[in-house]
Amino acid sequence: MELYVDSANLADIKHAASLGFISGVTTNPSLLAKEDPSLDIKDLLLDIHKSVGGHTSVEVISTDTDGMLREADEILKWFPEATIKIPFIPAGLTAVSELSRQGIPTNVTLLFTALQALIAANAGATYVSLFLGRLDDMGTDAMQAIEDTVEIWDMHDLEALIIAASIRHPIHLLGVARAGAHIATVPYKVLMQSMQHPLTDAGLASFLKDHEKMMKAKS
Ligand code: E4P
Known about the structure:
Elements lengths: L1 E5 L3 H9 L5 E3 L2 H5 L7 H12 L2 E5 L5 H14 L4 E5 L2 H12 L4 E6 L2 H10 L3 E5 L1 H5 L4 H15 L4 E5 L4 H10 L3 E4 L1 H8 L2 H21 L1
Helix pairs in contact: 1-3, 4-5, 6-8, 8-9
Bound molecules: erythose-4-phosphate.
């Protein structure tokens, strides 16, 4: 399962990318809105893309097909490798189908059920983003949606890649890896939490202490 960072914060993205295990980044309008309003969105997205050097999903904000296609054109002028992130609404499906016909990669977002994901895949989505945290927030078993989707994908050998999104904590990440999602897009904080283990820190401290002791004994 590949790991993407779900963020629009350049410092966090650069640090995550420097660790060598991130292969993409996903942004959305809410993540961009958290950043310094004086930043130029195009420049920020270009910097984000250069920092990661892999998949970069950029979301459209239009709610009509023509507007989405115009935005996609604009984003692709900024960097032609962009994946166009499109909300799961009827106008979005039409845009996905058109972009797919042109060979442009799309990431259909705001999916909460396996059936929505199946429909998006049939419209030509390259990636389908299923949200976990927002389902958990309303007391629905989010992991079931991922498990159902993976089961359907395996059964029908579907090509679109399943992105587990709206990940809120390391247990979500473990769950989607076990369920068989192809990619998880993970907030920076959760990536850092997932790396932590007190035994790793204690183990390193004791290795270094023993090495120091040995060096002292030799001198
Ligand atoms: C996915 O692509 C979205 O950017 C993101 O995962 C949404 O997460 P949230 O529900 O924590 O806002």
